[in-house]
Amino acid sequence: MIKGLYEAHLPVSDLQRSIDFYHKLELELAYRSERVVFFWLEKGKSWLGLWKTDQVEIPYHPSIRHVALQIDLGDMPSAKDWLKDRGIDIRPFFNFTEGQQPLVLDNNPQANAAVYFEDPDGNVLELIAPLRLDFEESFGEMSLEDWYKRFPI
After folding, report:
1. How many whole angstroms separate alpha carbon 90 and alpha carbon 134?
2. d(CA 65, CA 15)
């Protein structure tokens, strides 16, 4: 029945500033009005809505103001440089510095590599790539570099 996630939404304070930022991520603008814009994540399949609101300053929690954008695992080693080339800083996350990212999250039974950053309103964005599914060994959190040392391809 369920085929995937069609949309996610984030609060923003300035639509034009947000449009400029999300264009840096090479997302295609799908719709725009005075209070909301939508960007295609995968055209015709999923999009991200950015809503102009005065309620942007709500405290961050992973359950709100957070969107993970999937990339190919082969692109993960260059993800930080790709972001930096666009003027986007890596955000320390889970006690991992910029230099320790991409990091690997131990979300047993899955393992995912990720790099974290923020949009202009402090919404946390994540570039994420699955490493293994149905993976039973618990390993804790580590850098992707350490992951490959421990679990060679």
Report:
1. 29
2. 16
| Mean pLDDT in residue range 79-108 | 91
Can you give the pLDDT at residue 40? 97
- Asked if residue 6 and residue 71 are part of one domain, the reply reads no
Q: Edge to edge, what strands does the sheet with 124-132 contain?
A: 66-70, 124-132, 110-118, 103-107, 142-143
Residue 46 forms beta bridges with which residues? 42
- pTM over the 0.85 mark: yes
Note whether 81 and 128 are same-domain residues: yes
Three-state SS annotation for 73-97? HHHHHHHHHHHHHCCCCECCECCEC
Residue 144 structural domain: 65-153
Q: Flag whether pLDDT at 12 surpasses 80.
A: yes
